[in-house]
Every structure is written in structure tokens, then in C-alpha cells.
UniProtKB/TrEMBL annotation:
One of its GO terms (molecular function) is glycosyltransferase activity. It is found in: Membrane. Residues 5-164 form the Glycosyltransferase 2-like domain. Signal peptide: none annotated. Its main location: membrane. It is a multi-pass membrane protein. Its EC number is 2.4.-.-. This is Glycosyltransferase family 2 protein. InterPro entries: Glyco_trans_2-like, Glycosyltransferase_2, Nucleotide-diphossugar_trans. Keywords: Glycosyltransferase, Membrane, Transferase, Transmembrane, Transmembrane helix. It comes from the Bacteria.
Length: 309
């Protein structure tokens, strides 16, 4: 009998854990021939997530849990679950039931057809704020344009199936700023995508505020592209060209008319403008430098406080 590992990161999800467990159990009782294990990764929750996991796993052998020593972030939580998964295939999904468990049989079907990675392509329902829908769409379009990965529209969801051989490849990656959405496209393999409409969060509230979303967005861009670093060179060329033309015009003008163009205001503006541009470029370089710094320290990407296996 083939075994499917389901990896679920959970950060303050006390209300959702019994719900998602029941839904997954129901699904697997309908599709015979598969065993399953669920690996919940408690990513530094401050509510009763841990107590609930300990309780529920006592009566159910198919539930494993990993408790982090603090919050290490959603991506590392998924990575930890993958590191410990033992199934023939692994499915990662959110704890809040935004990823409908009813899609699991379809994911497995595609896998049985021979695909190594089954992505899901998300459509947000109308209830989700249009701000989130629009920024998400724009972001993935931008990321696809400037990086080598092709994150098709709505490809940014961490609901996916990976064959055990692919999980093995990911297990051996130790990126301090891991961005699984990009990696799963970057690795290649035989991939296919299936469409789904995201649901509303069952209980609790989202852990992603605007600031966290921005940071996540930067992580994605800087993990898959060095193009922002070229910005300095491009801008340098453009502004040098403009300055050369401007200076030429000025020389000719004062030669022909015998007058000098005065204007300290325009001078100050130019200085401030270029100061700003230089700071932006320095900031971009700083982001990459920070990533190198974090990677070089080689600290573990997560620390486990307890687990039940
Ligand atoms: N999550 C996590 N660590 C975090 C933030 C989120 O493990 O620091 C989990 C969370 O419990 C959920 C999934 O990641 O299972 C997606 O998070 P959330 O629903 O808050 O994000 P959204 O769906 O609003 O983008
Ligand atoms: Mg969610």
C-alpha cells in the first residue's frame, strides 16, 4: 500500500487542526489503497496548537507533530515537514482549510499518471480582498519576468504534491531563505498544474500582514534573480547619457549667447535625486549581502523543541 505524507505548517491554528484532520481522514477513507500520515509542524504558535496536537496524536497513530522552538516561518515549517516525511509522495497544504482537502485525490491521480510534481494553480474567490488578489497577481507576473522561474499566474500556492524522489532533492537543500514556490519550478522534473479556487480561512486569522507579505515578496525575488543588482549599471548608463547630452547643450548655449544658466534649485534637486538613487542601489546590494551573511553563518534553519516520533 502506498503512503502519502501530508505536511501542514501551523502557526496559531488551534481551531483548525481537528477540522482539517477530520476532512483528510474522510477523504482517505473514500480512496482505498493509500495510507497516510499527517505531519503538523507547529511553527511557534502562541495559542493552544501544541496541546491540541499532543491530545489528538495520542489517539491517532497517523498524526505526527514537530514543535519548533520558536517561529521560524512558514517556508521552513514546510521544509521541516518534508525533511521528516516518509511517504511515497508528499502533499503540503495550509492548516486553515484554504486549500480544499477534496483536491487530494486529484493530486494523487496526476502523480499516478507519472508526474513528479503536481502544482496547484489558485484562484482567489470573490470574498478575498481585491487588494490581495491584485497584488498577488502582479507580484507573480513580475517575479516570472525578472527570474528564471516561470511562476504562472496563481502559481504562488504552497499546496502541491511531490514524489518522494523530489522531496529527497529538496531535503538536501539548505537555503537560509528558502522559497519553495520558486524552487519547485526551478528543479524541473515532470510537472503539471491543476486549478482550484481557494476557500476562506476556516477559523482564526491570517499570520501574514502587509509587512510579512512584503518581506516574503523580497525573499522570492532575491532568491531567484540577481537582476536587481544590474539596476545600478543600467541606471548609471542612462544618467551618464543624459548628463552628457545636458552638459553639451549647456556648453553650446553659453558659447552662442555668452550667458551662464543659473539655478541653485535645480542643482539641489539633482543632488538629492542622485543621493536617493544611490541609496536605493545600496539598499538592494545590502539585501543580497544580508542573504550571504545569513547563509555563511550556517545556522540551522529551524530548531525542534519536541516531536512525537
Ligand atoms: N504559517 C506558519 N508560520 C508562519 C505563518 C504562517 O507556519 O509564520 C502557516 C499557517 O498556519 C498556515 C499557512 O502557513 O497553515 C499559511 O498562512 P496564512 O493562512 O496565515 O497565510 P495566508 O493564507 O493568509 O496567505
Ligand atoms: Mg491562509
Amino acid at each position: 500500500m502506498k503512503k502519502i505524507s501530508i505536511v501542514i505548517p501551523a502557526h496559531n491554528e488551534e481551531g483548525n487542526i481537528p477540522l482539517i484532520y477530520q476532512r483528510i481522514k474522510d477523504i482517505f477513507s473514500k480512496i482505498a489503497n493509500y495510507r497516510f500520515e499527517i505531519i503538523f509542524v507547529n511553527d511557534g504558535s502562541r495559542d493552544n496548537t501544541q496541546q491540541i496536537l499532543e491530545q489528538i496524536s495520542q489517539n491517532n497513530e497517523d498524526i505526527k507533530f514537530i514543535e519548533f522552538s520558536r517561529n521560524f516561518g512558514h517556508q521552513h515549517a514546510v521544509k521541516a515537514g518534508m525533511d521528516y516525511s516518509t511517504g511515497n509522495a508528499m502533499i503540503s497544504m495550509d492548516a486553515d482549510l484554504q486549500h480544499p482537502p477534496e483536491l487530494i485525490p486529484e493530486l494523487i491521480k496526476k502523480w499516478e499518471e507519472g508526474f513528479d510534481i503536481v502544482h496547484t494553480i489558485r484562484k482567489y474567490p470573490k470574498q478575498i480582498s481585491s487588494f490581495k488578489r491584485k497584488t498577488s497577481k502582479l507580484y507573480y507576473r513580475f517575479l516570472t519576468r525578472i527570474s528564471d522561474v516561470n511562476l504562472s499566474e496563481g502559481g504562488g500556492s504552497d499546496f502541491r504534491l511531490m514524489d518522494a524522489s523530489v522531496v529527497d532533492v529538496v531535503r538536501n537543500m539548505h537555503e537560509s531563505d528558502i522559497f519553495l514556490r520558486g524552487l519547485s519550478y526551478w528543479m524541473g522534473f515532470k510537472c503539471v498544474g491543476i486549478h482550484f479556487t481557494a476557500c476562506e480561512r476556516a477559523t482564526g486569522e491570517s499570520s501574514y500582514n502587509l509587512k510579512k507579505m512584503m518581506k516574503f515578496a523580497f525573499t522570492g525575488i532575491t532568491a531567484f534573480s540577481v537582476k536587481p543588482l544590474y539596476l545600478a549599471a543600467y541606471l548609471g548608463f542612462i544618467f551618464s547619457a543624459i548628463a552628457t547630452v545636458g552638459y553639451g547643450t549647456y556648453v553650446i548655449h553659453s558659447f552662442l549667447t555668452g550667458t551662464e544658466i543659473s539655478g541653485w534649485a535645480s542643482l539641489i534637486m539633482t543632488v538629492v535625486f542622485f543621493g536617493g538613487v544611490q541609496l536605493i542601489i545600496l539598499g538592494i546590494m545590502g539585501i543580497y549581502l544580508g542573504k550571504i551573511f545569513n547563509q555563511v553563518k550556517q545556522r540551522p534553519n529551524y530548531i525542534i523543541r519536541s516531536k512525537n516520533f
